[in-house]
Amino acid sequence: MDREVIPIGDCMRKVAIIAGSKKTAGAIAGQLNAILGELITFIGFSMHEWMENRDDFHMVLISTHTIFTRHIAPRIKTGTVIFVIRRTLLRKSLEKVMAIPSGSKLLVVNDERDSAEETIALLRELGAGHIELFPYFPGAATWEESTVAITPGEPELVPPFIQQVIDIDERVVDVSTLVDILTQFQLLNNETRTMLSRYADKIVTRSQGIQFTLQGLLHMKTILQRTLNMVQDGVIAYDHDGTITLFNRTAETIFGCTSEDAQKFTVEGLLHREGVDPMTFVEEWKDCLVHIKKQKILMNRQHIIENGHVTGGVLTLRAAKKVEELELKLRLQAKGYEARHSFGDLITVSQNMIKVVARAEKMAKSDLSVLILGESGTGKELFAHAIHRVSQRADYPFVAVNCSALPDNLLESELFGYEEGAFTGAKKGGKPGLFEQAHKGTIFLDEIGDISPNMQSRLLRVLQQKEVLKVGGTRLLPVDVRIIAATNRNLARMVAEGKFRDDLYYRLKILQLEVPPLRERREDIPLLAAYFLERRGANQEGLEPIHEALRRYDWPGNVRELENTMEYIAFMNDGHLTVEDLPMYTNESAAVDVPHEWAIEQIVPVQAAGIRVEQLVLEIIHHAKAAGKNAGRRAIVTAVKEKGLMISENEVRKTIDKLRDAGYVEVAAGRAGCRLTPSGFQQVRNGTG
Ligand SMILES: Nc1ncnc2c1ncn2[C@@H]1O[C@H](COP(=O)(O)OP(=O)(O)OP(=O)(O)O)[C@@H](O)[C@H]1O
Question: Ranges for the PAS domain (predicted)?
């Protein structure tokens, strides 16, 4: 019958035991308290003592069916959880009975007829069919045919004519009743199951099913523990509330404590004791390096999930030796066969970019090819690394190839490898190709838009057939590689113009990611600038004047150009850096051009040309500085002339005074002349923009 479980907190669980006599009830309560007393309190009552409708117990256990039906049933409050206790014998007691010669006739002595008959029924049920048993209790008719009696702990009731008494001790509560009680209180867990199976070992379980299950559990746990003790890694299993359920020998060595001691802690508590932050426990751990007892330990954690819920987990711990292997792995990374960047390395606050990152993370989960489009320096390669790192291929190589860096024939032998003697200069024994090296991993083909038609068809074949043919080879080699390709070229247009194979294009672009240029996410500029400076440990002070200039610049070389600029600034910053010192303004080709409208054919006085003189002078100063020239009064007059305009030196002086008063220029002593302040620079941009 399905009953409701009892949802109550610890320490409040109270169970009444009702039996024929106070003595029996007390004995049963004593047994149960000895087994489950830490979790539940059991109190015994004689059936006469039990008051009608008591409601201060969560459960009532009754010693026999007869007592329940004849005496107690009408006196129990509706809704109370009731069980009739099943009792059995200790294993050693049954062994005594089984040793009695077949055909013997024995009395079974108890305090009441019912009890004596129940004991006989129990002995029969437990397999004592080889002897004849007769009930005996105080007041029963004397019957002297037998000289041997069996009694469950009541030798004082044995009649005097009996010569031998076999005391089979008090009956004990059967494990099936314990299971019922624990289930009802939702207390059936790994710990109580282990306790039950130990108990079941001592008694003769009345339910064979339960006996087998529990013995099986104990047996399995023993085998598991033995097996885990042979494992070289430390293994710790724990249940939903962190209680440690298994702790193997290596774990004992690592933590310097016995499995028994460890099991007094929760897994978090144990790690905390070693100074490992249990907060990191929220997520799954993978190759997490921690220090336990001054030893480098590599820790992995996996959740155990049952029916969609985390019901526990397993921690594995690897000692220093394995860590060395990881260091070897890191050395491999340096060779370029492992992804160095993850999504965490991608700095952005741009909503636009955040969406691209979210798409990339989604794409990473699939195993399809990815095509990453974007201008040079936008972070395409960074995306490729990050995608690999969270993909199912993360534990295998990540091989990056820049397709435009090598001539066609070299790229071919790099990608596909070659057989010995394939061409003059080919290495003895041949060479494996990068596809082969990337087996089970990812190959990143950067600048895919630059590959020749021959390479396009070879690549297409690899994608279609998942096999590579080495240069000079005849044997097809199966490879399992995911391709991530990237280009800053307009592949769709190249396809339309017949410069890129459409079949290859469509295979590559199954998943397509477009990384926006930096000028379309200017909000990222200050963040990236600070990040690059910080990465170099550079002084970030005194750079306020140039922040606006950085934000306004178009960054044709995108994040890479910004990174280089910040490297330059980190090196140059002496606290007096100005906008004019920035590389993009000192490099003439990249400097802000003087706008077209200034270019007037004839020599005309500036005022007559209707030109804003201040703006023109600002432009000229800026242009001169960007070209690395000085911007004194004379130079400005000349520059104005070159534009077909006319201005006197006096006018230039007055204009400069005005500009200085407005805070747009600073006038240096000597030949250096004027230079723009940040607001002067902004004024130039406003005027030209
Ligand atoms: N969002 C970002 N956060 C931090 N660093 C970035 C970011 N985007 C790019 N970078 C850095 O900028 C540099 C250029 O990025 P990357 O090489 O990935 O660009 P790319 O688009 O592949 O360039 P190309 O097309 O020239 O190969 C790298 O050093 C990269 O780490």
Answer: 220-261
3-class secondary-structure state, position 144 = coil
Domain presence at residue 42: yes
Q: Would you say the CB of residue 356 lies under 6 angstroms from ligand 1?
A: no
Kindly indicate the confidence band of residue 332, based on its pLDDT and cuts at 50, 70 and 90: very low
Domain endpoint, select from 124, 139, 170? 170
Look up residue 303 and give its two tokens: 């959740």
Q: Looking at ligand 1, which atom is closest to the CA of residue 487?
A: 25
Ligand 1 atom with minimal separation from the 382 CA: 18
The verdict on 643 and 684 lying in the same domain is: yes
446 and 539 both lie in a single domain = no
Task: Kindly report the CATH number assigned to the domain that includes residue 544.
Answer: 1.10.8.60
- What's the rounded Cα separation, in Å, for the pair 289 and 317? 10
Is the pLDDT at 575 greater than 80? The verdict is no
Helices first, then strands: H and E counts in the chain: 26, 28
Atom 24 of ligand 1: nearest residue by CA position: 376
Shared domain for 320 and 396, answered yes or no, is no
- Cβ partners under 8 Å of residue 55, min gap 6: 77, 80
Residue that is written with structure tokens 């059967």 in the block: 174
**Most ligand 1 atoms within 8 A of CB, residue of 353, 378, 382, 534 to mutate:** 382
Buried/exposed 472-504: b ≥16 CB within 10 Å, e otherwise: ebeeebebebbbbbbbbbebeebbeeeebbeeb
In a domain, 618, yes or no: yes
3-state helix, strand, coil in the chain (%, to 5): 45, 20, 35
The last residue of one of the domains, among 131, 151, 170, is 170
User: How confident is the model at residue 322, as a pLDDT?
Assistant: 53
Higher pLDDT: 293 or 386? It is 386
Cα-only R_g, the chain: 44
Task: Specify whether 389 is located in the same domain as 488.
Answer: yes
* pTM of this prediction exceeds 0.90: no
Test site for ligand 1: of 348, 370, 378, most ligand atoms within 8 A of the Cβ: 378
289 and 161 in a single domain? The answer is no
DSSP state of 250: H
421's torsion region: left (phi>0), alpha (psi -120 to 50) or beta? left
Query: How far is the C-alpha of 518 from the C-alpha of 521, rounded, in Å?
Result: 5
Query: Is the pLDDT reported for residue 334 higher than 50?
Result: no
Looking from the CA of 457 toward its CB, the CA atoms found within 13 Å total: 2
What is the DSSP-derived secondary structure letter of residue 243?
A: B
Q: Taking a C-beta distance cutoff of 8 angstroms, is the pair 120, 135 a contact?
A: yes
Q: Is the pLDDT of residue 627 over 70?
A: no
Whether residues 155 and 248 fall in one domain: no
469 and 535 share one domain: no
User: In the 8-state DSSP scheme, what is residue 203?
Assistant: B
Say if 180 falls within a structural domain: no
CA of 592 to the centre of ligand 1 (A): 25
Please give the number of the atom of ligand 1 that sits closest to the Cα of 374: 21
The reply to whether 137 and 109 lie within a common domain is yes
Task: Find the 532 Cα to ligand 1 centroid distance in Å.
Answer: 12
Give the residue numbers spanning the domain of 461: 339-516
Instruction: Please give the tally of structural domains in the chain.
Output: 6
Which atom of ligand 1 is nearest to 376's Cα?
25
CA atoms of 686 and 504, how far apart (whole Å): 46
CATH number for the domain harbouring residue 266: 3.30.450.20
Q: What SS3 class is residue 111? A: coil
Ligand 1 centroid to Cα of residue 499, in Å, is 27
Looking at the domain assignment, is residue 200 inside a domain? no
Tell me the ipTM for this assembly: 0.98
